[in-house]
Specification:
The protein is mainly α. It has helices at about 5-20, 25-35, 40-55, 60-70, 75-90, 95-105, 110-120, 125-140, 145-155, 160-175.
């Protein structure tokens, strides 16, 4: 969402909180929006308030994790929030995929592999899950496993030229 849309959303969320001050959803939405606007110090209390109101709110943990992950030196706290969300919903492929992405974007490919594999396990018909696993495996130079992941992505979404290109590149690295 563009900055202007987040600014408009901020106003709407604040209005919603005037009507429903005990709404975890509105506190989390406001906190997330403030984070997207770069207002980390303003956003975090809203995100934490959402968790006070609803400690088992999976999305509230994810939103706080995202906000913390955007800040330098807060990854450990962000990861703890993601882990809590996973504890609350241990078969949520989207959560595993998101954490895998966060880890791989930090160069933690070995750790990311585990999360990408779980994402593919819990959402086996989602080509993107397999393709992202393949991409991560390439970073680990596990080309044979990456080939398997990309082949599955291509099987599930044969029209995706990027998946086919990545599969070709992997097989070339393997000398096939």
């Amino acid at each position: 969402m563009a900055q202007e849309k987040w600014a408009n959303a901020e106003e709407a969320y604040r209005a919603a909180l005037l009507l429903q001050p005990q709404s975890a959803r509105w506190h989390s939405s406001l906190g997330y929006g403030l984070t997207e606007l770069g207002k980390f110090k303003e956003g975090q209390p809203e995100l934490r308030r959402a968790l006070e109101l609803d400690p088992d709110g999976i999305q509230w943990h994810v939103n706080l994790g995202v906000a913390l992950a955007k800040q330098k030196d807060r990854w450990a706290e962000a990861f703890a929030e993601y882990q809590r969300a996973i504890e609350l919903d241990p078969e949520n492929a989207g959560l595993f995929h998101h954490v895998g992405y966060e880890l791989s974007s930090r160069g933690k490919f070995a750790e990311a592999e585990l999360f990408y594999r779980r994402a593919a396990q819990f959402d086996p018909k989602n080509a993107a899950q397999h393709a992202d696993l393949g991409k991560n495996l390439v970073q680990l130079q596990k080309y044979a496993e990456a080939e398997v992941a990309y082949r599955e992505a291509v099987r599930l979404d044969a029209g995706n030229s990027d998946y086919r290109t990545q599969l070709r590149k992997v097989t070339e690295k393997m000398g096939k």
